[in-house]
Design brief:
Layout lengths: L2 H11 L14 H21 L2 E9 L8 E4 L7 E8 L3 E4 L2 E4 L3 E9 L18 H16 L7 H15 L18
Antiparallel strand pairs: 1-6, 2-5, 3-6, 4-5
């Protein structure tokens, strides 16, 4: 889904959509806040349904060293958590990775989405799953309307958003286990 399509869904939900308007709405207050509110809600949802990252790094020690230490942001500037490292012995301590052997490191990690600001083009495509975007619509609507106390719609959308977040399955896959040869109890 593109940023423009997402905005249209939010404006349709809160009954502020105008296809003829330059920003899809005639309400300048809403359009001026839209990208920053989307960014905030997107980051919240992305911590629950994580965005996977993967990179391979050739680990080589400097002369006479027996380990190599890097900051996790050297892996990816958007990284926030290392999931696992395969191929080399390593330890993750805080924001550092200590490689204890040389070789090809396969690093699986979680990252923040590309941040949305006022300069972000409407053809930006979200990195989150469709189910996350459908939940985000309610979160964005709730945040946009929370200052509108006359109608209480902001509160209703925010409550719906929280309910939907609680039902969000954070798993990317179902784990499985195969036991060959049986088990003796």
């Amino acid at each position: 889904m593109t940023l423009e399509e997402f905005k249209a869904k939010v404006y349709e939900l809160i009954e502020e959509y105008n296809e003829e308007a330059e920003d899809l709405t005639e309400d300048q207050d809403l359009s001026s806040k839209m990208n920053s509110v989307i960014n905030s809600i997107m980051n919240e949802v992305a911590r629950l349904k994580k965005i996977d990252g993967y990179i391979r790094i050739d680990v080589v020690f400097e002369d006479e060293e027996n380990e190599r230490i890097i900051n996790i942001t050297d892996i990816d500037r958007r990284i926030y958590q290392v999931n696992m490292i395969r191929g080399v012995e390593s330890t993750v301590l805080g924001n550092k990775v200590i490689f204890e052997s040389e070789g090809l490191a396969q690093i699986f990690y979680y990252k923040y989405p590309v941040q949305i600001d006022e300069e972000t083009d409407d053809d930006y495509v979200f990195e989150l799953d469709k189910e996350c975007l459908e939940i985000m619509v309610y979160g964005v609507a709730g945040d946009l309307l929370k200052a509108d106390v006359s109608a209480n719609y902001g509160r209703l959308y925010a409550e719906r958003y929280e309910q939907m977040l609680q039902r969000l399955d954070p798993r990317r896959s179902m784990g499985s286990l195969f036991i060959d040869g049986g088990i003796e109890v």
